[in-house]
Specification:
alpha/beta; 8-stranded mixed sheet; 25 helices; 25 strands; globular
């Protein structure tokens, strides 16, 4: 066999800290063949990004690296990484806002590697950059090339980063959570592009991701990393279908599955990562492992040939499922009475700067919806369809151009009262942005208690501790600052702060999209428990349809400012459905679903194209377009069952005969 393109053997890495050296990686080994794709999965803190930085030679002065081999095409990366990165090794980092320079145009940043590494003139490099942006699915690429990062959505910024990484046609592409900020249709478009690069150019890939569906679709091989150690390796499809190591089983058990709809309970992995300043001689997953037994405290070897696992109990636990914790006993939930009622909400935004030619964009266009007490309404749709704007409209955080809101039977004016603010709260996507880095947890949770006159002094202290208990955190967290907590813990504090005012209604705006699958499972279970314990209602906004399928009672599908389908979750996830819903569901990467990529509905254009059309707002992209009727007349709302509504011109019998997109 030919030598691998990337070869890593017994890679160990330590970071110097005041508490002593952190053993971030311990004897990590894997190889990637030419044209191959390796998936690297594990929780935050497992060392995945450290592997990427080691390959790139970007570890910094505080790192000590030891390895038997770290080579790219035979060259020692410890000496050659600087000459190779950007030219033969491309990289896509998770956070596009941090990776892009805010003072330079997008086109300049995509063109820069072409000037630096290939000697192109600035004019030729910019022309190639515009072509690359178009290949990434960015609309109006020539226009976007002259924009600055702050003028682009998160998804568009990530696509620009991928274009930059591909500019010099690298042989190896390092992808560190490349699709976290993307909705399912753009994500599927990027996956198509990456598969095409492998097929036509033979590009090799290392994919770091917590989305196991993406890993399953794109990768040949899989390496599972836990607390700096490889715990399982092998062919990707085999490992995900029949995992050997308990940790791999735990990751899969924590995953919400859109093809299974609502599951009784997700199974988060209890506890957290071990202290890496004091490496355990035995299995470092033992404290969290439900299958731990005598002998686990002894050193574990990574055994096997094509399938390798670091566990001496593989044969003993074969076939045993990961235990799922019992849910707290919930009270019987009667048919919910209306809590929030929105009628005809509309909001337009005037253009300016880059988008001045698109003034008057209707972000929300006459939306009506009802959410009952203790009910979860999932809101899905692509980036730019108006989901977040609608969430802020129903909270009266931004003013509506028209429409009315009633809450608990009372009309809510544009200048909402303090009582409404107390009863309706929001949980944002990024706790790093929504939590004050200079405030302790106690200060962050105490503020709304005082603001709404709920408690003060010793009573406020007791209430803070009650809130921490609600989100399953100990009282000792009162003194912590945001930087002293994990992403999942910070998000729990964001939820606790929203609950501090004892609200009846929460808007969760992409509240779990950036979390690892295990932490995500814990937060989803928590939100479900809080609904059952406190009767809180949610508007749950997400581009992850698997998450929405798990938590939502009803689902509303939004497209270009309007609801095109609404109904109970089980009804929306199965035919009949709106052609846009069908396309969204077909794009969801599902673990173990072979052949779905070939059957996927590939939408052309984007949400903003087709503005100003008089007919169906989805007509310009619809694969089931039936002619001028769709272009000129607004579609009727067809009703299936009691409350399943679809806005579409297709006849009812044709809608009912649609094939299952998740089959």
């Amino acid at each position: 066999m030919s030598a691998p393109l990337l070869d890593i053997q017994r890679l160990s890495l330590r970071y110097a800290t005041q508490r002593g050296p952190v053993h971030a990686l311990q004897d990590v080994s894997f190889a990637i063949r030419r044209g191959g794709a390796m998936g690297l999965v594990g929780e935050s803190g497992s060392g995945k990004s450290s592997v990427v930085l080691a390959i790139l030679g970007l570890l910094g002065q505080g790192a000590t690296l030891e390895t038997a081999a770290l080579t790219f095409d035979g060259a020692d990366l410890r000496a050659a990484a600087e000459a190779l990165r950007g030219r033969r090794i491309g990289v896509v980092f998770q956070d596009p806002a941090a990776a892009l320079n805010p003072s330079l145009t997008i086109g300049f940043q995509v063109a820069e590697p072409l000037v630096q590494h290939q000697g192109l003139s600035r004019e030729a490099a910019l022309a190639r950059a515009i072509t690359l942006l178009g290949e990434m699915g960015i609309p109006r690429p020539a226009e976007i090339a002259h924009a600055y990062p702050h003028q682009l959505s998160g998804g568009m910024k990530q696509r620009a980063i991928i274009a930059t990484a591909l500019a010099c046609e690298p042989e190896l592409l390092l992808l560190d959570e490349p699709t976290t900020a993307l909705d399912v249709t753009v994500e599927a478009q990027i996956l198509d592009l990456l598969e095409k690069l492998r097929r036509e150019r033979g590009v090799s890939m290392l994919l770091v991701s917590h989305n196991l569906g993406i890993v399953d679709r794109l990768c040949d091989e899989l390496t599972v990393l836990y607390a700096g150690r490889v715990v399982e390796q092998g062919p990707c499809a085999e490992v995900l279908a029949t995992p050997s190591h308990p940790y791999t089983r735990g990751l899969l058990a924590a995953l919400p599955r859109v093809d299974r709809g609502r599951m009784a309970r997700l199974a988060p992995i209890p506890g957290g990562l071990p202290d890496l300043t004091q490496p355990m001689p035995g299995c470092n997953f033992q404290p969290r492992c439900p299958f731990a037994a005598a002998g686990c405290d002894q050193p574990q070897l990574l055994l096997g040939e094509t399938r390798r696992a670091r566990c001496h109990r593989i044969l003993d636990i074969a076939g045993q499922p990961w235990p799922i914790p019992e849910a707290p006993e919930a009270a019987t939930r009667p048919t919910p009475t209306p809590l929030l009622q929105a009628e005809g909400l509309a909001r337009s935004f005037g253009g300016g700067g880059l988008f001045k030619k698109r003034a008057g964009t209707r972000a929300v266009d006459g939306v009506s919806l009802t959410i009952g007490r203790g009910e979860v309404l999932g809101l899905v749709g692509e980036s730019g369809c108006g989901k977040s704007t609608l969430g802020r409209l129903v909270l009266r955080l931004i003013a509506a151009d028209s429409g009315a809101i009633r809450f608990d039977g009372q009309s809510i004016p544009p200048d909402a009262s303090t009582e409404f603010r107390r009863r309706a709260q929001i949980v944002f996507q990024n706790p790093d942005s929504s939590l004050n880095p200079r405030q302790t947890v106690d200060e962050a949770l105490r503020r709304p208690l005082i603001r709404f006159g709920i408690a003060d002094g010793a009573a406020a202290t007791r209430e803070v501790e009650r809130l921490l208990d609600l989100v399953r955190l100990p009282p000792s967290y009162r003194s912590r600052y945001p930087h002293q907590m994990s992403g999942g813990e910070k998000q729990r504090i964001g939820i606790a702060r929203a609950l501090a005012s004892r609200p009846d209604f929460l808007v969760c705006d992409e509240a779990v999209s950036a979390l690892d699958v295990s932490v995500q499972a814990a937060v989803l279970n928590l939100l479900t428990d809080l609904r059952d314990e406190l009767g809180v209602a949610y508007l749950f906004i997400s581009h992850d349809i698997g998450v929405v399928a798990h938590i939502a009672d009803r689902i509303a599908v939004m497209y270009r400012g309007a609801i095109v389908e609404e109904g109970r979750a089980a009804e929306v996830l199965a035919p009949p459905y709106h052609p846009y819903t069908e396309a969204l569901l077909s794009a969801v990467p599902v673990v173990g679903a072979e052949g779905r990529a070939e059957a996927r509905i590939r939408l052309k254009g984007d949400v903003q194209s087709g503005q100003g059309s008089m007919g169906c707002r989805f007509a310009h992209r619809c694969p089931r377009h039936i002619g001028s009727l769709c272009d000129t007349e607004a579609p009727p709302v067809r009703v299936f069952g009691e409350a399943h509504r679809i806005a579409c011109h297709l006849p009812e019998d044709e809608l009912a005969a649609m094939p299952a997109a998740l089959g």
